[in-house]
Each structure stands twice: as structure tokens, then as C-alpha cells.
Design goal:
By secondary structure, the protein is α/β, with parallel strands linked by helices. It folds into three domains: 180 residues, 3-Layer(aba) Sandwich (Rossmann fold), CATH 3.40.50.12780; 180 residues, 3-Layer(aba) Sandwich (Rossmann fold), CATH 3.40.50; 94 residues, GMP Synthetase, Chain A, domain 3, CATH 3.30.300.30. It has 16 helices and 25 strands. The longest helix is centred in the N-terminal third of the chain and has 17 residues. The model has no long low-confidence stretch (mean pLDDT 93).
Length: 542
């Protein structure tokens, strides 16, 4: 017997319709590529999203055609999130930090028909457009009077001219909620990138989950700054959760330096921000010398890579900002876990609470976790046994676009490539990527733990740990370090800094000072490139 409830598909257009109807006057603020600040409301965004949908109809795009973007976080990009997906097309957000060869490959693999881009990416478009054989229309996201002359880009028109000619009357179509809504390609650290193809259902469910109190805890009382890019896993779903809750949205545009981010947080009364550790490192680096403080910021989600303990301590002790440690990946839409304490933890000493906060957190409803050994046997949740992390759920990839890479699932579970532990309360702690874990004398050493100790040193800006071959122990860890400007630390001083903070055998054998730690397109440490940089390195002899 079926239930007697109304049935309607979970569609992304429903989110912007809800925002317009119930929170239409809530503000959306954007720092534009042009440098000025743009302000309007959800009501304005909904109207212009419908104009986008009409424009795509006018370009004769078919249902499920891919529409690409090369754009920063801003109101026009937000309109595309809804105008493209809501009309039944697939929004393809391209990461502009990828190599141009990868960008051209991605655009062709996705069979993109249209490319919307911010003017700051015009040189990139000029460099790749001749190789993007499927793209028929190029739209510069600017006013008509800012459109560059003689750009060399075919069929180039301005965004504002495109939508100005369109009516704001548009009836969002109804279709199967499992229809593709957007796509995002992985960073492609091994081989060509692969695309996660999200559905309207998966994105809507993820938006609900992300807004929950034990996750991002978003509401109409918040002013939200998504520093995490809209070209990277849909800005962790925040553009959808924001419309669902009616919170004020603050988009930073291209200016992600510490000074710019701080000024936007203060001027717009931001209460919640989300981003990767490298951005917050720049923010804290700007604030501390000037003795600056936050007036309204209360919490921040930090993900993308492990958050160093020193950063959590700085936010919480120095600035009274709660850090919510998160974990996920492109294939997971991306949220999998988020670290909030349980009621029973309230009475714990601060040192014990910090041990919990350093973990990646508890699974969100909609995500199931397990850790397994090399043979696939599930391992206990005791907080010490670590194994390969597998996940499943309604917003986790089943397969990649066009079947790239074959069937990724193992008995219905997606292997994440991460190694971790899960404690009795369900808190996940990522100890490494499976390809980065260091095997020394039969024991595993977490490169993340080694890195966290290094970056706690006041002279260290960034650190990355890798394993190098050792004739007796198989592998031994070394730590590559980039120093903070104007500060110094010697090899011996840094190695001594490890004493008492970890087991003696886990202390790295050497320190290699570098000008900069290589970062990938999503801000994560690129250990493949670091290993290439240090391919001729030899461990010092005793």
C-alpha cells in the first residue's frame, strides 16, 4: 500500500521559487570582477534566472545540453546555477585553475554547447577556444559596454545584452528528479579528470542536509560568505542551501587575499564563512599583525584538506569563532562528515574537546561510512584501527560521466581513497590518502599528523610530508617546509620541535626548505608534484 501524500519531483528550480516567494527581500551581495560591490535580492535573482532560461531556449539548446562556466563567486554565476539547471540543462562549472590543456579536454569531453565566463578569464578562453570544438556560443559575464573589442573569441556577446532581450516570464518545467542538474570534474591527479554528474534529487537532498543544525546550521538570520569557489563542487552546495534557508549571501568574487576577505566579512556582517585552509591562513596572516577582530563572525566550515590544530586554536581562542571541521569530495557532492560535539561532550576539558574537533566529524544523514582492510573486511569503530574509507548514499557518485574509469563501486560502496579511523561515537579521522600513507618498519605513519606539528611552529607557513625510500625501514618521512616571510627556523630547531608531540619513530628524518609548497587546482597540497621536485633527494646518512 502506497502513502497518500502529494508527489512532486525535487527540482533545483523549486529552491529559487521558494526563496523568491518567502525570502524575496533577502540580500545577495557580490564583489564583482570590476571591483565594485553589487547588491540585489533573491527576488531579483529569481527574475534574472528566468531570463537566463529564456535565453538558453533562444539559443536552441536541447534538454540536458551542457552549459559551461569559467566564473568566480558572484550574482551572475548564481543566476546560472538556477537558470541553467532549472530549465533542464546541465551546469558544468569548470575549474579555471586547471591546466589549459585539461580545460580544453574537459570542455570537449562534456560536449559543452555554451561557455559563460568572467572577463578575468578572457586570456584563458582566448587560449583554448580553438580546441573546444563543441562550444557554439561564448558569453562574457559583463555589461555590454565592458565587452572587449576584437577579442578573437567567436560569437562573443555580453551576458547583460543576452538576458536583457528576454522576458522574465518563464514556467519552470517539471521532469524526473533524477535528471542531471550539474557536473564537476575531479582534479585529475592521475590520468584525465572524471566527471561527477549530480542530479536534481541529489543536489536538493544535499542542500537540506547541509543546512541542518549539526552541519552548517544555516538560517535566515545568517549572513553567509562562501569563499569555497562556485566552480568547485558547487561551493559545497551553499548556493542551494542559501536559497532553501533565505540567508543573506555574500560573494567574494576574485579577491581572496586576507585583506579583501576580512573587509567583506566586516562590512557585510558575515556570521558564517566556508573555505579551505589556505584561504583562512591568508586571513589570519592579515589579522594578527594589525590586531584585528571580528564583529559578527561566529563560525566557519573548513574543509578541502585537513585543518591544522594551530588554525582551529587561533580561530577559537583568539577570535571566538567556532571551527567546524568537514570532510568530503567531488564524488560526494561533496559533504560527507562535519565535526560538531555531542551533548555528552559539554563537560569535557577543553583539551579533550580539541581532540574531537581535530577529527573530520560525524556522518551527515544521507551518508554511510565504513573502513575496511586490504581484503575488504569491515574494521571496528574503536578510534585506533584504521583502514580504507568507503561511503554510500543518495548524493554519492554511482559511476562517472561516460563510464570513465569503469565501475568505481565495491559491493555498492564508493572507495574514497582515504585512510582513516572511526571511533565509537562515529567520529571519522582521516589519517592520510591511501597513496600518501608512509609505511615504516611495518608501521603506518600519518603524513597529516607530521604536517600538523610542523605548521604549529610560528615560523612555518606551510608544510607537506612525504615518504622516501629507506634501506632498513622501507620508508621514512621527511617534511618539506615553506617559511613565513621574515621568519626563520633551522632544520635542527624544527626537528626538536617534534619532541614530546609524537612518538620518536614518527619524527621526520629530515627537513627540506622550499620556496613554496605546490598546490593543486582546488588548493590541496600536490604531493605528486612535490615528489617530482624532490626526486633526486637522498636521506642524510647517520
Amino acid at each position: 500500500m502506497l502513502g497518500l501524500m502529494q508527489s512532486q519531483p525535487l527540482l533545483i528550480s523549486g529552491l529559487i521559487e521558494f526563496a523568491e516567494r518567502h525570502n524575496g527581500d533577502a540580500e545577495i551581495v557580490s564583489r564583482r570582477v570590476e571591483g565594485d560591490v553589487h547588491r540585489y535580492t533573491y527576488r531579483d535573482a529569481a527574475k534574472r534566472s528566468r531570463q537566463v532560461a529564456n535565453a538558453l531556449d533562444g539559443l536552441k539548446l536541447a534538454f540536458s545540453d551542457r552549459v559551461a562556466t569559467l566564473a568566480w563567486n558572484g550574482y551572475r554565476h548564481f543566476e546560472l546555477y538556477y537558470g541553467v539547471s532549472g530549465s533542464g540543462r546541465v551546469l558544468h562549472t569548470i575549474n579555471p585553475r586547471l591546466h589549459r590543456d585539461q580545460i580544453a579536454w574537459i570542455a570537449n569531453h562534456a560536449e559543452d554547447q555554451v561557455l559563460f565566463f568572467d572577463l578575468s578569464f578572457l586570456p584563458l578562453v582566448q587560449a583554448v577556444h580553438a580546441r573546444c570544438t563543441s562550444i557554439k556560443h561564448y558569453i562574457a559575464m559583463c555589461d555590454e559596454d565592458k565587452l572587449p573589442k576584437d577579442s578573437g573569441v567567436p560569437n562573443l556577446i555580453s551576458y547583460e545584452k543576452l538576458i536583457a532581450a528576454q522576458s522574465s516570464d518563464y514556467s519552470w518545467p517539471s521532469f524526473d528528479e533524477n535528471t542531471a542538474s550539474s557536473m564537476c570534474y575531479t582534479s585529475g591527479t592521475t590520468g584525465n579528470p572524471k566527471a561527477a554528474l549530480y542530479s536534481h534529487r541529489s543536489s536538493t537532498l544535499h542542500a537540506y542536509a547541509a543546512a541542518l543544525p549539526d552541519v552548517m546550521n544555516l538560517s535566515a538570520r545568517d549572513s553567509v560568505l562562501p569563499v569555497v569557489p562556485m566552480f568547485h563542487v558547487n561551493a559545497w552546495g551553499i548556493p542551494y542551501s542559501a536559497a532553501l534557508t533565505g540567508c543573506k549571501l555574500v560573494f567574494p568574487g576574485p579577491a581572496l587575499d586576507g585583506k579583501s576577505v576580512y573587509e567583506l566579512i566586516e562590512s557585510e556582517g558575515v556570521t558564517f564563512a566556508a573555505g579551505v585552509p589556505t584561504v583562512w591562513q591568508m586571513l589570519l596572516g592579515h589579522m594578527k599583525p594589525a590586531n584585528l577582530r571580528f564583529s559578527k563572525l561566529k563560525r566557519t566550515v573548513i574543509g578541502g584538506s585537513a585543518c591544522p590544530p594551530a588554525m582551529i586554536t587561533a580561530f577559537q581562542d583568539d577570535y571566538k569563532v567556532e571551527v567546524l571541521h568537514a570532510w568530503g569530495m567531488t564524488e560526494m557532492s561533496p559533504l560527507g562528515t562535519l565535526c560538531t560535539l555531542k551533548n555528552k561532550h559539554d563537560a569535557l576539558p577543553e583539551a579533550e574537546k580539541m581532540k574531537i574537533r581535530l577529527k573530520q566529524g560525524r556522518a551527515i544523514y544521507g551518508v554511510d561510512l565504513k573502513i575496511v582492510d586490504a581484503g575488504g573486511k569491515e574494521l571496528p569503530w574503536d578510534g585506533t584501527t584504521f583502514g580504507d574509507l568507503h561511503v554510500k548514499g543518495p548524493w554519492i557518485v554511482r559511476e562517472y560521466f561516460k563510464g570513465e574509469g569503469g565501475d568505481p563501486l565495491v559491493n555498492g560502496w564508493f572507495p574514497t581513497g582515504d585512510v582513516g579511523t572511526i571511533d565509537a561515537d562515529g567520529y571519522l579521522q582521516i589519517t592520510d590518502r591511501s597513496k600518501d600513507v608512509i609505511k615504516s618498519g611495518g608501521e603506518w605513519i600519518s603524513s597529516i599528523d607530521v604536517e600538523n606539528i610542523a605548521v604549529a611552529h610560528p615560523a612555518v607557513a606551510m608544510a607537506a610530508c612525504i615518504g622516501v625510500a629507506h634501506p632498513k625501514w622501507d620508508e621514512r618521512p621527511i617534511i618539506a617546509v615553506a617559511k613565513k616571510p621574515g621568519m626563520d627556523v633551522s632544520r635542527d630547531e624544527l626537528l626538536k620541535f617534534y619532541e614530546g608531540k609524537t612518538a620518536k619513530w614518527q619524527i621526520p628524518d629530515d627537513v627540506v626548505f622550499v620556496d613554496a609548497i605546490p598546490l593543486g587546482a582546488t588548493g590541496k597540497i600536490l604531493k605528486t608534484r612535490l615528489r617530482e621536485m624532490l626526486k633526486d633527494y637522498k636521506l642524510p646518512t647517520a
